[in-house]
Batch of 2 targets.
Target 1
Amino acid sequence: MALLDNVMLTKTLPCLADPGKCIVIGRPSRNLDGVLPLVAAVAPNIIAFNPAAGTLTLRRQPGFITFYPDKVMITQVNDVDEGLELLEAVKDLINQCWEQRDTIQPVTAARRTPRPLDVWALLPQTNCKVCGEMTCMAFAFMLLQAQRSLEECPLLADDPAFKERGDQLAAMLG
């Protein structure tokens, strides 16, 4: 049985991040509290999940989708027609997660995507350039964008003093 009948478009706003585009806001036909931990468990593009506040933000290209218990906001939408299509897709995602709730392990802890400083803090910070980047911070950005791998940092790969940091980075980056 589906959880939602619809996610009704309630408002559009100008998108400050991308002039000419809009933000669409929709109201789900039922509260999303119980399903957001399921969506957080299956969505590959999570920016942040805060179960205490009941918010989940996903990255989309371009923009973001943010779920609240009583609304959904989608940024950088071309027009109302695209907004309606996206709200329909959101409804379908929520209903799929709800229908498969017995097979999904819900996320109960807060999650957020690692930031460049989170990665940089675990790198050797020598700026040796052996990885091909000018700085360890540049390497951190490339790791987050999956354009470099941890094995390209020789200190992480070969120096036993950095093994624990390398293991933490591997876990952080998945």
Note: The longest helix spans residues 80-99.
Target 2
Amino acid sequence: MKTYEKSNLSVKRLTSGKLPSLPFLRLKETILGKNYELSIVFAGRKLASELNKKYRRKNKSTNILSFPLSKTSGEIIMNLELARKEAPRFNRKYIDHLGALLIHGMLHLKGHKHGNKMEVEEQKFITKA
């Protein structure tokens, strides 16, 4: 397991390989704030499927799950295998797709729901990333 911890941020990879090279701390502080406590877990398809079934009652794997724990803390679970597979469909490189998904998950933690407003916010942060 690979782990990165710094300034109210914990990033863990439960699958083999190294942590993706993303500006985790900068994104967290920009979108959620410096005091927000965030845990990001990179998981495999099986764990993502189990959590999606348990918490969203959807019997399939998903690319990202966001769990707000309080107003100032939350957890994001990302499925690296699915993200890699779907990146070409979005005309993105794998690492760029992971960054976009991470932004998407953080906006959910901030309270945004799917829709035009969220898409505008995503694009604003994606272009800065």
Note: The beta strands are 2-6, 9-13, 37-43, 64-70, 73-79.
